[in-house]
Structure formats: structure tokens, C-alpha cells
Amino acid sequence: MTSPTTLVHRDAEALAHAVAARLLTRLADVQSEGRIPRLVLTGGRVAAVVYRAVAESPAASAIDWSRVEVWWGDERFLPAGDPDRNETQNRDALLSKVAVDPARVHPMPADTGQGAEAAASAYAEELAAAMGPDDVDGVPTFDVLMLGVGPDGHMASLFPGHEGLRVADRAAIAVHDSPKPPPTRISLTFPALNRSHEVWFVVSGADKAKAVGLAVGGADRTEIPSAGPKGLDRTLWLLDEAAAAEIPAR
Ligand SMILES: O=C(O)[C@H](O)[C@@H](O)[C@H](O)[C@H](O)COP(=O)(O)O
């Protein structure tokens, strides 16, 4: 478990470009170690700008995209191709623009009428099938896990006070009655979210300042879920000035 490091950028645009550059560097570094980077994507507006910047960067040509593994931290449980799915948005911004190997891209299941519980179990099985001998808690160890944060302090689809915050025996769960639409979602759980070398929170805007201040200050994760996930090597809070405004002085 690592204590959080905060990095503050002038505005959302500067933040997104800095995160894009950091992501390209991290992917290239892992590939140069001879490993296939395991990347967990997030939804949200800032992330969309980050992923677009990644796709458009000249440095993207340094990555062998066919050797990048892609997972998701959460998903809105909607039919395939729905514009509100994180997968759809992430494909538009990045995955359709680089030569990923479809076999290494692992979207959370779409709503085909199977039910969110069955979909979450299927994703947990897919994660378990990718585990190596040293991996624990039902997931392959990720390299970079990216998360957005809501004004209420939620991340992935773990919302304040929800029962999903207490789940410790599964890597992925169905979430019902989400306070933010759509009501039904799939999310990784805390044990799974804690299995990444690096966790990057990417947050912009004044409406997030309170939640960011509380999370970085070490709030209880059942009240401010974004206080929970910690990287095995590093936990980074990548912020713009507005989002960083209420970080407690050290
Ligand atoms: O699942 C969702 O409804 C959203 O994707 C959400 O979890 C998002 O990641 C954060 O609210 C940050 O989003 P913004 O970057 O758009 O502020």
C-alpha cells in the first residue's frame, strides 16, 4: 500500500496532455521490460480527452498496441454499442485508432438480457482466467489502473454507502440503484482495484475539490470510496488546480 502522491496541472487541458504523455511512457517502459502492459481504463470526460490525446500523440507509434492488454474498472450495464457505455466511448477515443489485438481487449459484458449478476460473474471469471501464478484476489496484477472521481467521492461504480463497498470475496459485482444513471452497472471491487502497480486518479474541476480533499486526506472509504484504491507501487492523484483546491496542507 502506498501513500498518495498529488500532481497538479494548470487546467483540464494541461492535465489531460500530461496524463496522456505519462501513459505512453508507462506503456513503453513496461514493453521495454519485455512484458505486456495491463491497462485498466475509466470512463468520464477527462479520460476521453486523455485517450484522444494518446491516440493523436506522435509518441503512440512507440507502443506495440497489439501487445497491450485492456480491462475496465466499471461499466454501465447497457446494450453493446450504447453511446453511454464506457467501452463505446473508450473505443471511439482510443481503441479504434490504434492497432490493438481484439483478443487482449476485455470489455465488461453488455446487457443482452442475461442480468447484471451473471455479467459480473462472467467478468470475474475472465479476470481469473488471466491470472498468473503470483497473482491474488481474483485478478491479474495490473500495471496502470485509471479512475475518475465523482463529486460524491465515488470511483468506478462504487458509490458512498453502497453495499458493494463491503464485497471482499469477488473481483467484479453488479451494482443496482446507482445514484448516477444508468442505475445498473458492473464494477470491480476494492480487492481487485488494489491489485495494480500504479493507480492513477485523474480528476478535473471545482465540483470535485471537496471529494478529492477528503480522499487524499485519508477519509473512510465507505464514505468516500475514492479514498480506497491504492497502487502496489504508486498511487497518483493527477489533478487540475480547481480539483486540487481543498487538499489538506501537509
Ligand atoms: O460511471 C460514471 O457515471 C462516470 O463515468 C463516472 O464514474 C466518472 O468517471 C466520474 O464521475 C468522473 O467523470 P468526469 O471526468 O466526467 O468528471
UniProtKB/TrEMBL annotation:
The pathway that the record names for this protein is: Carbohydrate degradation; pentose phosphate pathway; D-ribulose 5-phosphate from D-glucose 6-phosphate (oxidative stage): step 2/3
Say which enzyme class the record assigns. hydrolase
- What EC number is given for this enzyme? 3.1.1.31
Superkingdom as given in the UniProt entry: Bacteria
Listed CDD domains: 6PGL
Give a GO biological-process term.
carbohydrate metabolic process
Q: Which NCBIfam families match?
A: pgl
Briefly, what is this protein's role? Hydrolysis of 6-phosphogluconolactone to 6-phosphogluconate.
Regarding protein family, the annotation reads: Belongs to the glucosamine/galactosamine-6-phosphate isomerase family. 6-phosphogluconolactonase subfamily.
Identification of the protein by name: 6-phosphogluconolactonase
Task: Give the source species.
Answer: Kribbella amoyensis
